[in-house]
Design brief:
By secondary structure, the chain is α/β, with parallel strands linked by helices. It is 47% helix and 20% strand. The two termini are 28 Å apart.
């Protein structure tokens, strides 16, 4: 997330009963796409279910370094829920979060889980079979280089193979 994180991208996670984790769920989302709608509803539903939720605007305190706090929250979470939306791949912060989630998941597969949500995008977008995410990654490569792009592509490809939920803004759900 950049200095405009609140409007650019967002994260929230939910906290756990285990001493090894502070959060049960970490939500990764593009703020401009879902913060004021789906993500906000999901966040409040988690609170209502007595799940401690890490939400960037609630948990990241003024004076704290965002780049240092978000990876810690990811590491202290058990379940990762990336909410893929049309603008998700255009956010460097979302891609950084996703790559870190995948690293943590691969290093502790029995302790971590990824449960993707495809919100107004298809799994083909995340599998990089459509121009939506491919174009965004191409733009990032110009600024961050090929190695970083490949890391983000690998993270997207890894998560795209996991069964998740497809949601359309009209409100119905399909399983991927």
């Amino acid at each position: 997330m950049d200095s405009g994180k609140s409007s650019e991208a967002g994260s929230s996670g939910a906290g756990g009963a285990s001493s090894a984790t502070d959060y049960e769920v970490f939500l990764s989302f593009r703020g401009l796409d879902t913060r004021q709608g789906f993500t906000d509803f999901l966040y409040h539903d988690m609170l209502d279910a007595n799940i401690r939720v890490f939400l960037d605007k609630e948990e990241l305190h003024v004076g704290k370094e965002i780049a240092g706090e978000l990876p810690k929250a990811i590491e202290k979470s058990r379940i990762y829920v990336p909410i893929f939306s049309k603008g998700y791949a255009s956010s460097v912060w979302c891609l950084r979060e996703l790559a870190h989630m995948v690293e943590c998941w691969k290093s502790k597969p029995s302790e971590k889980e990824i449960m993707p949500i495809f919100y107004d995008v298809g799994s083909d977008d995340v599998k990089l079979k459509s121009p939506l995410y491919v174009g965004a990654l191409g733009e990032h490569e110009k600024k961050y280089g090929r190695e970083r792009r490949e890391k983000w592509e690998d993270a997207l490809q890894s998560v795209s193979r996991i069964r998740g939920w497809e949601l359309k803004s009209q409100g119905y759900v399909c399983f991927h």
